[in-house]
Amino acid sequence: QENKSEVVVFSVPSYACQRRTTLENQNATLTDALSLLAENAELSGEDGRGVAFRRAAAVLKVLPSPVKSASQLAGLPCLGEHSLRVIKDILENGASSEVESTKESEQFKALKVLTGIFGVGAKTADRWIREGIHNLRQLRDSGHTLNRAQQAGLDHFDDIKQPVTKAEAAAIEEIVEKAVASVLPGVRVVLTGGFRRGKLTGHDVDFLITHPEEGREVGLMPKVVSWLEAQGFLLYQKTTRNSYLESKDGPGRPPSNIDRFERCLSIFKLTRMEKPAAEAPGDGAVNGVRADGQRESDELSRSEPAGAAADRRWRAVRVDLVVSPISQFAFALLGWTGSKLFERELRRWAGYEKAMSLSSHALYDNNQRKYLRASSEEDIFAHLGLEYIPPSERNA
Ligand code: 8DG
Ligand code: MN
Ligand code: MN
Predict the structure, then answer these.
(1) Which residues of the chain have pLDDT under 70?
(2) In what ranges is there compositional bias, type Basic and acidic residues (predicted)?
(3) What is the CB neighbour count within 10 angstroms for residue 168?
């Protein structure tokens, strides 16, 4: 007879791309804590530690019930000594001292605010912090010359830090559809990134653009951007040309996970969505509390006077556009759907377990010494010997 009081022991495959990770999470307290440590490590230039925490968090995300004791975790992959210590701390004491002190640390807070500016990475933020710049006011007062991206990021800081809703993503999709249709008929636009995985909000909106006839997509991006610009939809854009064909190291093996599609990182000017009447009786801030419930407390990380944003009839939204030839579309779609950890794990699986190199352009088999064709994401999973995982289950 089975012992009913026996604790549940979990079992999980070790690569995130072997697992189905939905947005449902029975261990959010633990995964939030590990994700914060991952973020701190990444912002501090410790990428290895960052990945370790991300992998540990991803394992906890797929557990079917809340972890009650550390003994349940025996045998689970990717849980290093450090992650286990954090988990135990939370299970036993309700919180992790390391997580709490990180959250409160001036260094972490300053890194978060400064890298929250579009165009500012961890290195730049760290340099500024060492000069005593910890917030937006100090950055403005410093007289530093910002590049065009950073200036746009600073100008639209408040808007960009607000999560993008699905409704806003749909509105932007309509604009992008209209833009590509007026420039070249037959073009296909697909919403990728977090929204394709079923997320309800995002930090930006990602699109992949292609044309069913190979080659017709060439030169598309500048035309789309010109159309959007002429219509007044762009507050900022930077287009990068496709360098894939020109590269010497051959297809399938770009030097990093950064791909070479023609892409456009942009900030859209989106007409504000009407809020449901019951929710927005004045649409403005009342006693410092906005309609979205967040307090406008941090004077130092705000870029315009309180309430000013609510008076505008538009808001700024980060949008990424990528153009791919149809022959690489499946790889591009898989590569731009995420999550970032899922992508990383797919490439690790391909390399270590299958001796293949996966990129957002191609899949190369190092043993057969040839490229493997794919016209769908399903094809790619099959080549990799993996069960197909749909986008909604790639939320690792
Ligand atoms: P969010 O915006 O909802 O917060 O999350 P997300 O949509 O998952 O993240 P993202 O930062 O917008 O990235 C979306 C996907 O795009 C993710 O899988 C990573 C991928 N991606 C980049 N940059 C690059 C790149 O340079 N090359 C390739 N191949 N993929 C990239 O963000
Ligand atoms: Mn995104
Ligand atoms: Mn993006």
Answers:
(1) 1-6, 243-260, 276-299
(2) 292-302
(3) 21
Q: How many CB atoms lie within 10 A of CB 301?
A: 20
Nearest to 320 by CA among 195, 182, 150, 161: 195
> What fold does the segment set 105-155 form as a domain?
DNA polymerase; domain 1 (1.10.150)
Separation in Å, CA 203 to CA 116, 127, 313: 10, 25, 20
- Residue 285 contacts residue 296 (beta carbons within 8 Å): yes
**Nearest ligand 1 atom, CA 335:** 29
Catalytic-labelled residue, pool 204, 259, 292, 311: 204
Q: Is 206 annotated as a binding residue?
A: yes
Interval between CA 221 and ligand 3 midpoint (Å): 17
- Going by alpha carbons, the residue nearest to atom 8 of ligand 1 is 194
Report pLDDT for 282: 46
283 is catalytic: no
Closest residue CA from atom 22 of ligand 1: 336
d(CA 145, CA 152): 13
Specify the pLDDT at position 208: 98
What residue spans define the domains of the chain? 16-102, 105-155, 161-325, 328-393
pLDDT tens digits, one per residue of 26-70? 999 999 999 999 999 999 999 999 999 999 999 999 999 999 999
Burial letters for 206-237: b for 16+ Cβ neighbours within 10 Å, e otherwise? bbbbbbeeeebbeebbeebbebbeeeebbbbb
Is residue 146 exposed (0-12), middle (13-18) or buried (19+ Cβ within 10 Å)? middle
> At the fourth CATH level, which superfamily is domain 328-393?
DNA polymerase, thumb domain (3.30.210.10)
204 assigned ligand-binding residue: yes
Q: Provide the ipTM.
A: 0.96
Q: Which residues contact 259 (CB under 8 A, 6 or more apart)?
A: 244, 332, 335, 359, 360, 361
Q: What angle do CA 117, 118, 122 make, to 5 degrees?
A: 70
Residue 178 tokens read as 């209209």
> Residue 164 CA: which ligand 1 atom is closest?
3
